[in-house]
Automatic annotation (TrEMBL):
Keyword set includes Cell membrane: yes
Domain ABC transmembrane type-1: 18-296
Transmembrane annotation, as ranges: 55-80, 135-152, 158-175, 236-263
Keywords: ATP-binding, Cell membrane, Membrane, Nucleotide-binding, Transmembrane, Transmembrane helix, Transport
Protein name per the record: ABC transporter ATP-binding protein
PROSITE patterns: ABC_TM1F, ABC_TRANSPORTER_1, ABC_TRANSPORTER_2
GO cellular component, one term: plasma membrane
Source species of the chain: Alteraurantiacibacter aquimixticola
GO molecular function term, any single one: ABC-type oligopeptide transporter activity
Cellular localization per UniProt: Cell membrane
SUPFAM superfamilies to which the protein is assigned, alphabetical: ABC transporter transmembrane region, P-loop containing nucleoside triphosphate hydrolases
Keyword Transmembrane attributed: yes
Mode of membrane association: Multi-pass membrane protein
Length: 553
């Protein structure tokens, strides 16, 4: 894991980190005072308390209370700071993902990204808060304990550094295996989540094809492999901290035994007790640091995955480019294009659509009709040729301005589980009642929306499942019409309508579409009647170009 990238992300939380560091130093100093005070109290007891122990006892109690309070404060502050840092990291990841090219989304799994930005990040969160809360104070306490051991009895204390390599080897061996298993377990969990997501989306298909048992069996397989890997990894994690703590305790016993033999007989009982307590104190940070090392190995995988996403290149055209709204002259000039690793879809494709023309594009399935729109919107870039809007290459537009000026009603309406109003106003949350009414009317949606139980405020379920296919399509139409863009694209948008509704829609649209450039991808006769011009595509080329119904009327 790149520690530098973690530190860079921690930079905005400097103030909180500083407060945590100060409290941590205080906490370590208090912790280190305890063996000293306890040693002198115990020494006093053994020597028959010739001196007054009251102050030492009071200080010991105060030190214990202060140490507890500081530990609590550091834990809470660390959890708050790491929580903030992670919320920012998650948001950064999602923001970045939204700006990645469509090609990235088509080749990657949404489930993987979902798992890394949601539950996987918990590893990172636990590591960060544990590191901030524990690591510095444990390191300081360990260093302080070693120094004080040397101060009390250097000859015996010399034994302490000799055991360090043993810890190092144990940590490396277990840590490596832990990282490997951790990675495999996380991948298995990501697959499981992804599969669950797909399975939930497929419930209607699963039911209609009576595939329930098979789907459950496949899920159970994924769940079992995830369980096994997580168990192995949990066993190893459970081993790491306590094993290292045990090694440290054994080493402390050795030091104590050695102290009994080699300690200067002139030492007071108080010094002897303090020495033994410091040796025992040393075991605590060693165990805790080993545990942190395990978390570090684990969190590293998550950070690497997040970093991999964050290093994917954003699509160009967000930061700069033409933002003026075009009027709608479209030219495809000798455009060729192939999806990565696929045969060419468009070959030397040329088409000029003057502003205000309604053009219908027809052609067999897979002829490349929708691909034309993806290229116009800059979801993909042509391999050769040029696409221009008002004489300017579409690549020279700021991508959001470009896309806002082209309203698309897709084949499959992308609706979400909000109200009808929220779905229609998706691109324009502040749209007024009049604009909304007009869009509903043009999309022939007023009647059915009014008849819904709560009208515009009716919630339509995931992907709009509580509506009919035609109703969903009308919502999508209303959404595109609401924006009133200069270019409109209907990609088989009327396919869900019955012929009567399609006729009515076409009639209504005649006026509404006037003056706009409209691309209708359709085979429907009524829609064809709406066009000034009908072209037919075959194998990525125009094979026919003739006047449409509108031209004749
Ligand atoms: N994201 C993609 N990655 C790879 N190949 C794709 C992708 N999208 C479409 N294709 C392929 O490109 C070709 C053209 O697809 P396109 O969707 O443009 O056809 P279409 O004319 O709109 O078809 P339809 O009438 O069926 O909607 C098809 O062979 C399709 O398999």
């Amino acid at each position: 894991m790149k520690l530098r990238s973690l530190l860079r992300r921690a930079a905005p939380y400097r103030g909180q980190l500083l407060a945590i560091s100060l409290l941590t130093v205080l906490s370590s100093v208090t912790t280190l005072a305890i063996p000293w005070l306890a040693g002198s109290v115990l020494g006093g007891v053994v020597e028959g308390a010739t001196t007054d122990q009251t102050w030492a006892i009071v200080l010991l109690v105060v030190a214990l209370v202060v140490m507890t309070a500081l530990t609590i404060a550091v834990s809470i502050l660390s959890a708050a700071a790491s929580g903030r840092a992670l919320a920012a990291l998650r948001t950064e990841a999602i923001e970045h993902v939204q700006r990645l090219p469509m090609g990235y989304h088509h080749r990657s799994h949404a489930g993987d990204l979902l798992s890394v930005t949601t539950w996987e990040v918990v590893n990172l969160s636990e590591f960060l808060s544990a590191t901030m809360a524990k690591a510095p104070s444990q390191v300081l306490t360990a260093i302080g304990a070693v120094i004080l051991l040397f101060a009390i009895e250097p000859r015996v204390a010399l034994f302490v550094p000799l055991v360090v390599p043993v810890f190092y080897i144990a940590l490396r061996l277990i840590g490596r295996r832990l990282r490997l298993l951790g990675g495999q377990a996380r991948d298995a969990d990501a697959t499981l989540i992804s599969f669950a997501e797909t399975q939930l989306e497929l419930v209607p298909a699963t039911k209609s094809f009576a595939m329930e048992e098979q789907m459950v069996a496949r899920f159970a397989q994924h769940a079992e492999s995830s369980r096994q890997l997580n168990l192995q990894q949990a066993r190893l994690s459970a081993l790491l901290g306590p094993l290292i703590a045990l090694l440290a305790a054994l080493a402390a016993i050795a030091v104590i035994l050695l102290a009994g033999v080699a300690m200067d007989p002139q030492r007071s009982p108080a010094e002897l007790f303090s020495f033994l307590l410091y040796a025992a104190l040393l075991t605590r940070p060693v165990g805790a640091l080993a545990d942190l090392y395990g978390r570090y190995r684990f969190a590293g995988g998550t950070l690497e995955k997040l970093e991999a996403v964050l290093h994917e290149e954003e699509e160009p055209g967000y930061a700069s480019g033409e933002t003026a709204i075009p009027r709608g002259d479209i030219v495809f000039d000798a455009v060729s294009f192939a999806y990565p690793g696929r045969p060419e879809v468009l070959t030397d494709f040329s088409l000029t659509i003057p502003r205000g023309q309604v053009i219908a594009i027809t052609g067999e399935n897979g002829a490349g009709k929708s691909t034309l729109i993806s290229l116009l919107l800059q979801f993909y870039r042509p391999d050769a040729g040029r696409i221009a809007l008002d004489g300017r290459d579409v690549a020279s537009f700021q991508v959001q301005a470009l896309r806002q000026s082209v309203g698309v009603v897709p084949q499959r309406a992308l609706l979400f589980a909000g109200s009808v109003r929220e779905n229609i106003c998706f691109g324009h949350p502040d749209a007024g009642a009049k604009v909304l009414e007009r869009a509903l009317r043009l999309a022939q949606a007023t009647d059915f929306v009014t008849a819904l139980p709560q009208g515009l405020d009716t919630r339509i379920g995931d992907h709009g499942v509580r509506l009919s296919g035609g109703q969903r399509q009308r919502i999508a139409l209303a959404r595109a019409l609401l924006a009133d863009p200069p270019v409109l694209v209907f990609d088989e948008a009327t396919a869900m309508f019955d012929s009567e509704a399609e006729q009515a829609f076409v009639q209504q649209c005649r006026d509404a579409l006037a003056g706009r450039t409209v691309i209708l991808i359709t085979h429907r006769p009524a829609s064809l009647a709406l066009a000034h011009r009908i072209i037919r595509m075959e194998h990525g080329r125009v094979v026919d170009d003739r006047p449409g119904g509108q031209a004749r009327s």
